[in-house]
Amino acid sequence: MKREKINTLNEKDLLIGLITSDDFCREIVPVLVPKQLEIEYARILAQWIKDYFNSYKVAPQRNIMKLYRAKVDELNDESLQDNILEFIKNLDENYDEKKISNVDFAISQSINYLKKRSLNDLVENMSANLSLDDVDKVESILTKYKCVEPSETSGISLLHDSEKITDSFLNENSLLYELDGAYGKVIGKIHREDFIAFLAPMKRGKTFHLINVGVEAMKNGLKVLFISMEMSENEITKRVWTSLSGQLPEDKEEIDYPYFVENDESDKKWKIEHKTINRKAVSIADIQKKQKNMMRMFRGGDFRIMSAPAYGWNVEKVDLEIEKLSQNLHYVPDVIIIDYADILAPSEKGEYRNQLDGIWKRLRGLAQRRKAVVFTATQSTREGLSTDVTAQSIAEDIRKLAHVTCMVALNQSKVEKEQNIMRLSQIAIREGDSETKDALCLQCYAIGRPVLDSRFADEVEYKRKNDDDSNDSEKPKKKTYNNKYKEFE
Fold this sequence. Notes:
The protein is α/β, with parallel strands linked by helices and 489 residues long. 42% of the residues lie in helices and 18% in strands. It has helices at residues 8-20, 22-28, 40-56, 64-71, 78-93, 95-98, 103-131, 135-144, 162-170, 181-187, 206-219, 233-245, 284-298, 315-329, 352-370, 400-403, 414-418; strands at 175-177, 190-191, 195-200, 223-228, 252-262, 270-279, 302-307, 335-339, 373-379, 406-411, 421-429, 439-444, 449-456, 460-461. Strands 7-4-8-9-3-10-11-12-13 form a nine-stranded mixed sheet, sandwiched between helices. A three-stranded mixed sheet has the order 5-6-14, with no helix packed on it. Helix 1 packs parallel to helix 3 (40-56), helix 2 (22-28) runs parallel beside helix 7 (103-131) and helix 3 (40-56) crosses helix 4 (64-71). The chain is globular and about 85 Å long.
């Protein structure tokens, strides 16, 4: 009989989770049977960690080497000692990079693997006893078999599960990161399983803002996957690197750089001033040096770029490519960015509006299944080129609003564009309070930065639509969609 190849990656991932994460241990230890693992040193180390967690209720984390030293004398096999020590040293030297950030997804993957190992053990035991005609033993084995299931499959009792109810309010496990300033207030806190979209007309900077939320995620130690369906890998790589490092394709001597200063001349708290800066072209020799500095700064964060043909990939293909990254490169994204949803291929035939609705439904499902936040963008109708974008500006199908957890509009008049200003307006949000005020963002695309700083627009003195129409009261009232997704206000 052909022996199945040992899946060392699954078991190494399992050990890393057990060593680095309390939450991972809390879910996995109750269903972990170390003797069912295939790698010999994994069985030993998993048992050590299981005993440690049951005693102290925390993962060993950086204390794993102390645990090894306390237990190593129990092993008579030197090669086994060396294998465990090599694994621990490799993890310790690359701890920030290797520790699991997407814990919820790692738990689901490990549960699935432990199910396979448990079922494999069941089949082998039953087969061995069947070959001996011990039917009673086979039936006994089958009767005593316990399914490997995570604790959440039993649901939550509102009268007994006080810890889970507390967690649902604190929401600590699912909060990924927050963006600074008024910009962050309009987008809201960013959680796992969120589905967030930017709405804007063509050439309004949607890709820049998608890059920006990814770069900020990486700075917070998260792993980002950016799938570009409009630009080549080279084009998007240059744009992301410029945003991250400030290095440009060529020298630029005069770059307009806006910034906020306190305003003593009116009732507005802030005003905008401009200065001229310069930037040097990218230095090939400095790229590796900058990468090393960033790896130290971002604590395991990373930004990976993939290019896909427009209308060539559907959501299932996206999911498959993410799974390949997870299995082959040990890269599990916390943030998935798709530029942009409307040019994904549909998964079924039918009317275009229904195809779009299916794409957006599946993207929400992708966020939930991968325990990640998904960002994308969608194009508004042509009216958005001359007026502010609202929920009514959504092209093709307003049902997109039903699937997102937040949608933000990018608004900019010609006069605002001349001042390097963009206004962000919250169109809809599923959780939390709606933000009715616009975020005024200062931008500098020349250095790849769509958000240098942000303040609420009603706090800033700046030139509005044109010289003859600069009064806020003369602007048409902005329509917003309420957080119940039921009616316009």
